[in-house]
Design brief:
By secondary structure, the protein is an alpha/beta fold. The protein has 2 domains: 174 residues, P-loop containing nucleotide triphosphate hydrolases (Rossmann fold), CATH 3.40.50; 73 residues, no CATH class. Helix content is 32%, strand content 23%. The strands form 2 sheets. A 6-stranded mixed β-sheet has the order 6-7-8-3-9-10. Strand 1 and strand 2 form a beta hairpin. Helix 6 packs parallel to helix 7. The radius of gyration is 19 Å and the shape is globular.
């Protein structure tokens, strides 16, 4: 039986005046895979990902999640549907603790009148859940769940952001340049974390300019060019040089995109 994609997008169009950011763009993500999305600056990668994550509404085309057409009006709607996005800026609040950041915007309230009337938070439950999720993902080098995020290293902050996504992203996690600002050692930890999340059965969309990282962890590579999907390649069958040549138009693309 043929596997069905968890997300498909077809014929997406987005125009900003005379600029066409998405030009009949297609996309598909299959269960349990790491799909890398690569493309030159201005190729429309960000617009594609924003459309899928609810941050942008396409002018034309359709997006399906589990076969059902979805029309996300905001990232909050996409999150409720199980699509979590970790942006480059991480969207963490530096002065708050790790536990507070994990539950930012979805705090757990105390049971009974204390929660419903007095709006008191269940700090203990949130701390326990945050600790469990970090342990599950091998991130308990972070000693104190109550330490402020601003005291963490870049890699640890990325870890917290990914752990938050893994805790709530029931269906898909989108990672936007997760290793861009990190050194070699910290990048290695984040790549291991990405593989850990995939091993738990959550498919990942990885947007990255770092070709060695893409070729190391991706199952398939979606190449975006001039506002649309150019092709999808198998990293085992093509080299990094091939991918760059396809991306820049220096080399003709293979006619058949790789299946999942």
């Amino acid at each position: 039986m043929e596997r069905q994609p968890i997300i498909t997008a077809s014929g997406l169009v987005k125009r900003y005046g005379r600029v066409t950011a998405l030009d009949n763009a297609d996309f598909d993500l299959y269960p349990g895979e790491i799909l890398a999305v690569i493309g030159d600056n201005g190729a429309g990668k960000s617009s594609l990902i924003k459309a899928i994550s609810g941050a942008l509404r396409p002018d034309e085309g359709e997006i399906r999640l589990d076969g059902e057409i979805v029309n996300f009006r905001s990232p909050i709607e996409a999150r409720k549907a199980g699509i979590e996005t970790v942006y480059q800026n991480l969207a963490l609040s530096p002065a708050l603790s790790i536990a507070d950041n994990m539950f930012l915007g979805r705090e757990i309230r105390r049971a009974g009148p204390l929660g419903s009337i007095f709006r008191m938070l269940d700090k203990q439950k949130m701390e326990s859940m945050a600790r469990n999720k970090l342990s599950e993902l091998g991130l308990m080098t972070i000693q104190n769940i109550n330490q402020a995020v601003e005291t963490l290293s870049g890699g640890q902050r990325q870890g917290v952001a990914v752990a938050r996504a893994a805790a709530f992203g029931s269906k898909v996690i989108i990672l936007d340049e997760p290793t861009a600002a990190l050194g070699v050692k910290e990048s290695r930890k984040v790549l291991e974390l990405i593989l850990d999340v995939r091993a738990r059965g959550i498919p990942i969309v990885l947007i990255s300019h770092n070709m060695p990282h893409v070729f190391e962890v991706a199952d398939r590579i979606h190449i975006h060019r001039l506002g649309r999907r150019l092709t999808v390649i198998d990293p085992k069958e093509y080299t990094m040089s091939d991918a760059v040549a396809f991306m820049t138009g220096a080399k003709a693309v293979p006619t058949e995109p790789v299946a999942a």
